[in-house]
């Protein structure tokens, strides 16, 4: 079925949402819900379909070309298609790297536009933000060097020349710039305050991947970002109200992140002891899977 469905997608226009959205979902599920051997064959089929990849680029670009919806909570058919497109491309990036699959058509996306889609959210639905962050995590994990995504350039619209790094830090973080990094971190912090479970999981995962990327590029910058005093205020906000709130999975993963990069001004010995005490008193068998996993990572880090 991958052949006819992917070929059908390649003949569509981005506005053909009724046909494209379930088709892209089928391709996405075909990648994830199969055996490793079949998964590799599915990746080969999809990455060899030039018309499909050209369509996916057009779909993703609609994220910043179309006007934002008037109601942020409403997931329109166009937004649903964008979600499917971002998730499928993120998966293709992951599996193309895993299996070292040949690519017959590269995607070229504007990094500034991708970042701005998260930084300046403009009433984007939560699921769309989560999907874009999945893509952002994929390119960060591959240091913007995927053979599927050869060009992740900066905005050169209106005849502007390609901007040169303004500092040694910008040069080290290329293609990111320090200002973009801080803007993205602040935006992710603001998204965490919404306390939506799906959004929180995506935001913390994106923060983890971003700091890992920064640490590889420039350790001083990574440690500087991880030790920003605003993180402590964010933790206080997340911990406001509720019982056993330190055992929330997003809180545990954030604390683990700060511990990993030695942010002693964010996390004190007192908070570490409090988490250990709450974990000792909790019924571990009844903890949700996400909490158990986050607690395991925390204990390993400690």
Q: What layout of secondary structure does this protein have?
A:
Blueprint: H1 2-10, H2 17-32, H3 36-47, H4 50-65, H5 77-99, E1 108-110, H6 111-119, H7 126-141, E2 151-153, H8 168-173, H9 178-192, H10 197-217, H11 219-226, H12 230-238, H13 249-260, H14 269-281, H15 289-301
Parallel strand pairs: 1-2
Characterise the protein shown here.
Helices cover 66% and strands 2% of the residues. Helix 1 (2-10) runs antiparallel to helix 2 (17-32) and helix 2 runs antiparallel to helix 3 (36-47). The protein is mostly helical and 302 residues long. The protein is globular and about 60 Å long. Strands 1-2 form a two-stranded parallel ribbon. It starts with a helix and ends with a helix.
How would the global form be characterised? globular
* pLDDT averaged over residues: 89
- Residue fraction in strands: under 5%
- Note the gap between the termini: 48 Å
Roughly how many Å is the radius of gyration? 20 Å
Q: How many strands, what sense, and barrel or not for the largest sheet?
A: 2 strands, parallel
Order of SSEs? HHHHHEHHEHHHHHHHH
Helix content: 55-70%
Structural class based on helices, strands and sheet pairing: mainly alpha
Q: What is the spatial order of strands in the main beta sheet?
A: 1-2
Task: Count all strands and give the number.
Answer: 2
Unreliable spans are 156-163
Tally of separate helices: 15
């Amino acid at each position: 079925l991958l052949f006819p469905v992917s070929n059908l997608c390649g003949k569509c226009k981005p506005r053909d949402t009724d046909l494209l959205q379930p088709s892209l979902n089928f391709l996405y599920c075909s990648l994830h819900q199969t055996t490793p051997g079949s998964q590799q064959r599915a990746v080969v089929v999809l990455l060899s379909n030039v018309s499909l990849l050209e369509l996916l680029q057009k779909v993703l670009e609609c994220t910043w070309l179309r006007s934002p919806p008037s109601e942020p909570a409403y997931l329109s058919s166009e937004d649903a298609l964008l979600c499917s497109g971002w998730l499928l491309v993120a998966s293709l990036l992951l599996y193309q790297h895993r299996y070292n699959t040949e690519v017959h058509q590269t995607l070229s996306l504007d990094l500034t536009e991708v970042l701005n889609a998260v930084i300046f959210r403009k009433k984007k639905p939560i699921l769309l933000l989560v999907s874009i962050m999945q893509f952002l995590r994929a390119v960060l994990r591959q240091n913007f060097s995927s053979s599927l995504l050869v060009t992740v350039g900066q905005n050169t619209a209106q005849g502007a020349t390609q901007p040169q790094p303004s500092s040694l830090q910008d040069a080290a973080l290329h293609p990111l710039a320090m200002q973009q990094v801080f803007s993205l971190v602040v935006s992710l912090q603001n998204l965490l305050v919404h306390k939506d479970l799906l959004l929180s999981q995506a935001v913390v995962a994106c923060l983890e991947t971003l700091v890992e990327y920064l640490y590889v590029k420039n350790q001083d910058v990574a440690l500087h970002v991880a030790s920003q005093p605003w993180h402590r205020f964010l933790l206080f906000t997340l911990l406001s109200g509720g019982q056993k709130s330190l055992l929330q999975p997003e809180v545990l993963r954030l604390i683990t992140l700060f511990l990993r990069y030695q942010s002693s001004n964010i996390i004190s010995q007192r908070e570490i002891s409090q988490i250990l005490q709450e974990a000792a008193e909790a019924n571990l068998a009844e903890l949700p899977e996400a909490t158990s996993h986050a607690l395991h990572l925390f204990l390993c880090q400690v």
